[in-house]
Amino acid sequence: MGANLFSNYGEAVAMILFGIGFGNLLLQSNLIKKIIGLNIMDTAIYLFLAEKGYIENRVAPIVVDGVQSMEAYINPIPSGLVLTGIVVSVSVSALMLSITIRLYQRYHTLDLDEISIRLKKEGL
Amino acid sequence: MNIVRNFPAVSILLCLFAGIISSGLKKKMAGYVNTVLISIVGLLSISTLFYVLSTGEAFVYVMGKFPAPWGNEIRAGVLEAFMALFFCIIMLLSLFGGRKKLTDEVEEGKTFLYYVLMDLLLASLLALVYTNDLFTAYVFVEINTIAACGLIMIRQNGRTIEAAARYMIMSLLGSGLLLMGLCMLYDLTGHLLMSNIKEQVAFVYASGEYRIPLLVTIALLSVGLAIKSALFPFHAWLPDAYGYSTVSSAAVLSSLVSKGYIFLLIKIIYRVIGFEIFYESRIVDALFAFGLMGMIFGSISAIRENDIRRMIAFSSVAQIGYIYMGIGMGTQAGMEASIFHILSHAATKSLLFVAAIGLTDVSGGSRQFIELTGSGYRNKWAGVAFTVGSLSMVGVPLFSGFVSKLLFAQAAVQNDIKMLPALIVLGISTILNAIYFMKTVIRIYTPLEDSKYGSITFKNMKLYVAALVCFIILNVALGVSSQPIVDLIGQGLAMFS
Fold this sequence. Notes:
heterodimer; A: mainly alpha; B: mainly alpha; two-stranded antiparallel sheet; 20 helices; 77% helix
C-alpha cells in the first residue's frame, strides 16, 4: 500500500489538492475564495490526468523523425481531455466571477451568508 | 443507410445553430425560432422513435470518420428517442404557459437571450440523452449547468442572483466529482465510449483486481450526478432557484434539467458500469437511503412553507427522492418505476408551477397563502389545473402520480429487504403530500366575500389556458394509458444492454 502510494505520488498529490479545492468550494463563505477552490479542484483533476497520461521516456505522438513504433509515444487522449476540461473550467469560472460582480454591486460584500441574511431582511 | 439515422445528431446541431442565430434576432423572432425549433426536434424524435420501434434495435451514429474505439458516437434506442420527445413537449408547454409572464419579469431588451438559453438547454439535454461518449456527456453536463444558471438569473433581483450563485456552487461540486470519476474510469478501462467501457469494466471486475478504484469510481459518478439533480442532502439551492426565477424557468428546471442528470445516471448504470456490477457495489443502498430521507424531509419542509412557489419547489425534493428510491431498489421493476416517475413528475410539476403563477397573479402578485384565499374562483382555469396537479402528486387514480406510486409499490414488493422501509415511507410521504397539497387546494377554493382583487377572463390568457389544458391532458393520458408507456420503458431498458 505504502509503496504504491510512493510510486504514484503525483496522483496522491492530485487527490489531496482535489480535496483541498473541494473543501474550499463547499465551505468558504467568501465567493472569491470559493472560485479559487473551484480552480484548485479542477486543476487537480488535470494534474491527475497528466500524471496518468505520461509515460517516462516517451514523447507526444508527433511523427518527425520517422519513428513509427508505438513504444516511442504516449497516448494523446488524456492531454486532449485536459484541454477540453480547461475550456470548460474557464467558462464556468468566468460565469461565477460575473455572478460575484453582480452580487458585489448589489450588496457590497463577498460573503454569501451575509448576502443571504440581508435578503431575508429585505423580505423579497 | 436510412435517413432517420441522422436525426438525433441533426436535432442536437439544429438546437446549437438556432441558439447562435437567435442571439442576433429581435425578441419576437427569437421566440418564433425557438417554438419552431422545439416542434421540429419533437417531430424528428417521433420519427426516430418509430424507426427504432420498427427495426427493434438501437442504432449507433458515428460522428466524424473515426470508428468505434476512437471516435465519438451517438446512440438512439426507444428510451432515448422517447425521452427526447417528452422533453420537447414539456419544454414547449412550459414556455407557452410562461410567455406572458416572461415579458413582465425580464428586462425588455433581454428576452431574446432567454430563448438563446432555452435553445442551448435543449441541445445539452438532447446530447445527454443521446450521447454514447462519457466525456461528451461531461461537456454537455456543464453546458446544461451554465444554461440553467442563466435561466435562473435572467430575472434580475437579489434573490435570483444569490440562488444562481448557490446553484452554480452545488453544481460545480457535482461536476467536479463527476469529472474525477470519469478520469478514474478512463484510467481503469482506457476507453471513453460507453459500450467499450462496459466490456472493460466487466473484464476488470471478473479479474478481481482494482476493486477499490472501481468502487470509488462508481461512488464518484453516482454522488456527482446525485448532487447535480438535488438529491436530499444537497437540495439547499433548490427552493430559491425554483421559487424566485421566472415561471417557465422554474418549470423547465424542475421537470427537465434535474431529469437530464438522472437519465444520464441511469444510462451510466446500464451502459457503462453494468447493472449487476453497479448493484453489487452497494452504492445503491446509499442512494436508496437518501431517497427515502428526501421523500420525508422534502415533504416536511413543504408543509412548513408559507409561499406557494417554494412549497412546490420543496415538493420536487420529495419527488426526486422517489426516483432515487426506485433506482436504489435494485430491480428492473424499480428502474421502470423510476423512469415512469421521471415522466409523471415532469408533467405534473411543470403544470403546478404554471398554474401557481396564474393563482398568484390574481392575488396581487403575492405568493403567501393568506393572500391566495379564493384565487381558484378568480382564475378558474389555473384553479382547476392546480387541483389536477395536486391530485396527481398525491396519487389519486386517473392521474399520472397514481401510476408511478403503484409501480413503486409493486417494485418494492419484489425486493425482500427493502420492501418494508420502501412501503412505509411511501405511505408516510403520500400522507404528507396530501396534507400540503390539499391544504393549498382548500385554500384556493375557500370563498372570499369581498375580495380586493379582480378576476381574470379567458380572453386575456388564451395561450396560458391552452398550455394548461395540454398539461392536464398529458397528465390524464399518462395516468390512464400507462401500460403502453411502461412497456415502452421496459423495451427501452432492454435495448440499453
